[in-house]
Amino acid sequence: MANVILEILQERRVMALLFLLLLAVGWIFLHGGPFGGGLKFGIDFSGGLRVPVLLEQSVDPVTMDDMVRTINARASAFALTEVRVRPVGDSQIYVEVAKTNKELLTDILSILSQQGVFTATVDGQTAIEGSDVLTQRIYRVTGQQLSQSGGDWAISFAVTAAGQNRFTAAARGKTDYPIYMFVDRPSDAIVVISKTDLLAQANLNSVAANTVRADEALKATQEALKLNADPVPVYTEDQLLSPDFKLTYAKDNKTKAVISSNASAELKALLNKSGYILSERSPVDMQPHYRTSRGGLTSVVVDSWEAVGLKSAPGLSSDVTQGVPSAFNAYTINGPAVGVGNARVLDADRRARETMGVLKGGALPVQISVGQVQEVQAPLGAEFLRLSLIGAVFAMACISLLVALRYRTIKVVLPIVFISVSEVIILLAIIGSFSIDLAAMAGIICAIGVSVDAQIVVTDEILKKGAHEDTQERLNKAFAIIMTNALVASVAMLPLLFAGSNLISVIGFATTTILGYIMGVAITRPAYGAIVRHLVHAPGENASPAPAKTGL
Description:
The protein has 552 residues and is α+β, with helices and mostly antiparallel strands.
């Protein structure tokens, strides 16, 4: 028996399973154990953090449904993370995240703070609007395409035929002009920037910043915000504070003044006195990033500027400025990240997810403001978790009993139980890195049954009487059945992932189930096949089979 166990441990598929199992257990306990932070539990189990979203005005039920759907779509950019969105009355929406995912709160607040209006302009004309974007054709740019884009992150998207025609008209004859791509470009606003912030990022191809004059940089920022329908003037702080400068009063009590949070008290008082609503941004966001221009109106172009929502400004190539709509109506937004090393990578990932979330979710029909974060208790959370664990253990016990009654040999029961427990632990480690909610827990319990079902298929094929195939041929037949079942079941789960906001609450179940099928086909089913071919043999077959590949 010892020799058989040694042979089993030398099987590479068994070694792969044991490695993943040890990695999962190590990950959980390295981060505090199952209940000490190693597994992140959802709102139902651990409570949550609530972000009240206040609507500028009361809305009808149809508009409220649109708002909830849009916010849900934006939140879905965070993949496995549990985010709940629900309306409260006709002027408020609650967005809730699990308490164990506090680091996610900053990302949620950032993506909610944007109304989500996408606009692309060329030389003061609107080239593409948010309604032109095809949400099904938005994806993250990676690899060589990302390096060619010149940014730390990039998002590709496609537009409708109407958007393509509008772009063609705006870009006609504008070779090398920048196309300014904004998310939430200021409207009915002015921008006031200090000379320090204006030139802070003026580093053109490693040329010293002082080679870019302030008047060049200011003109570049003004060109970026030029729009025939709604121009946004840009002033320096020195201009406004000059005794000779006369600042016009705000057109109405909603006109904003975008300024740095470090702006002087004197400037803020002047703007308040003139009737402007102050919109303060961080000094880093107030600093435009520049690039050189081969054409257009200026030699310096603002390439990105967070304070005004400018994500990127690629130059128009000659093949798209001939006045003929392109057969490839795809465009790319790219931009820089801040920080160095891993911090820069994480910031680039955050910015890309925010932009994807806004583009996929679309524009909100009503302006919103974000209220103070509140803590949501889960008084029955411990009980829910206890009952869920009891359910998982009970399911495993019942399945083990049925398998024992069916095969009446410990050589089959123990491997099935071991494989099923291993699969559950690995799934818990993967899903628990994000958030385990009730739906995900249901998927994990479901995975137990799916795992055992596949192993029964393998065992029955090996024990089948009257067949003329050897063990390997029978294993291949079993794995063909398992792969077909996994493929069909995974495809059946896909609508739960992509069918829209009404099914957001079951994403955890669908994701867990699909992961279970993928892991089963790739790791656990082959490992079980390798184990069982050493322990169980077809009637009349030699008890010591020669080593062979076990499926897949």
